[in-house]
Amino acid sequence: MTSAEIRQSFLDFFHEKKHTIVPSSSLMPDSPNLLFTNAGMNQFVPIFLGDAKCPYTPGRAADTQKCIRAGGKHNDLDDVGLDTYHHTFFEMLGNWSFGDYFKKEAIRWAWELVIGRWKFPANRVYATVYAPSAGDPSEFDQEAYDIWAELFTAAGLDPKVHIVNGNKKDNFWMMGDTGPCGPCSELHVDLTPEGDTKGSLVNMGDARCIEIWNLVFIQFNANPDGTFTPLPAQHVDTGMGFERVTSIIQGTKGFTDFVHAKISNYETDIFRPIFDEIEVLSGKKYGSTLPPADLSAITEQESTDIAFRVIADHIRTLSFAIADGILPGNTDRNYVLRRILRRAVRYGRTLGFHEPFFFKLVDVLTRTMGDVFPELRKKHAHVREVLHMEEEAFNRTLDTGIKKFAGFASASMAAAIEFPDVDATEAAYRRTELQKEFGELSVPEFLRKSLEKFPGSVQKGQPVLFGQWAFELYDTYGFPIDLTELIARERGLGVDRDGFEKLMDRQRERARQAQKKEVISVSSIEAPATKFFGYDSEEIETRVIDVVGIK
Ligand code: ATP
Ligand code: MG
Ligand code: MG
Ligand code: MG
Fold it and tell me: What residues does the Alanyl-transfer RNA synthetases family profile domain cover (predicted)?
């Protein structure tokens, strides 16, 4: 099946079960508590809360929902590129009951679709059920357990192996800190070589053993004071990872080939066209390497592949968000977008791009997804233009910033070496020597060679990039702190985040003071007795940077 067929067969299945097929809502959420739409249920919150009447008869709906999970409660940004199944932007397929059916239908239909229609081998499927600890808002979900047990037993499988308890973190779903929520039951698929025998999801974390579908039984509202109130009615809210399901069906060629299976969302027809375009533009090839465990010791192909994955993920996030009217900017969700874009541009350097390239990928995305999401077509020129401008602005400072970082990194590493036997001048001289000679190495290598070169020297603490330098990279070169941390992590270097935050606070305070002064200057027009203090040079600089969009 192609991904388009998989998406359609999900919608067809629930249409047959009398669900109204609804369009995806915008990535710009209605709720002030969310940065982006992060789940299929977001658009239905007023119905769950009883604030809006359900417009569907019967009270059932299904759709594919555009989601972004970057920043906020569900933040997957740091995993992107480093695993093969978390994206910042993804489609969540979902079906809902608004006070209509409950656990029995939800679970049986999930089984019917996955096992009956899509032919997932039942012995590779695992279900989790909610098992609370003391003080949790709900009881053990015996009802869900019994329904799953019946299905697994009928398939000749042991429910004790195939049903796994999950705690509040995994099996009590919440959209954010507040809102409709409840216990959930998830489907996982284990395609590891021994995945049909071991049970208990021991292979979780392996890319071949992943969660595909979450069935949430919405019963409560989480209040701002941390308490839970039962809702007027019980609802079903499910979310299935479209790219993940596609990766399993396509990676196993419809479950006919487990031996050569490459289970990765990026090995699907969803991402392949974007990769093809990146290959053409960069002249590099995606090598399908597995995400490495240690970033500071990776091969060139591994680092190329991370860059491919990150860039392909990020172009989707940026394009869909801009098409929905969320622009990169300096605050809140807009700054999250800007951070994501800057990550992509920086990963572009890994592939050898020095001129704007990212905006060009919008074309292939619109070509492949514009049928399902027509807003991409409609906003195509706008998205391209916004990205181009953003990319150009960051490009201007990126290379200098990268050079600066290299200097800061080598100085940070050298600062961790002490010379107890010599005076300060000699110690400083030796540190410069180390920087010159070993400054390009990763932290463990640097330390090893440095201690070897100067017998008698000692290591004092683990090297970290000083907060002041992280701040300089942010303030002058437009490096978001998470980008600095990422680049540092590739060297095995930490970052003094506290030091950075202190400087950020001071800058915010200065900005507040400057604003006050502005108010004074305006009011001074009517009240000449009030003195205008003007801006100090630092504030003027801040403004100029803002104008060219570097920060
Ligand atoms: P995970 O534990 O893998 O992070 P989750 O439990 O946070 O997933 P849910 O909130 O239950 O995810 O969302 C429903 C479904 O959406 C998941 O079962 C998964 O298939 C899919 N999904 C969740 N997060 C992502 C993501 N970042 N990228 C792609 N698919 C995702
Ligand atoms: Mg998650
Ligand atoms: Mg999960
Ligand atoms: Mg889940």
Answer: 1-551
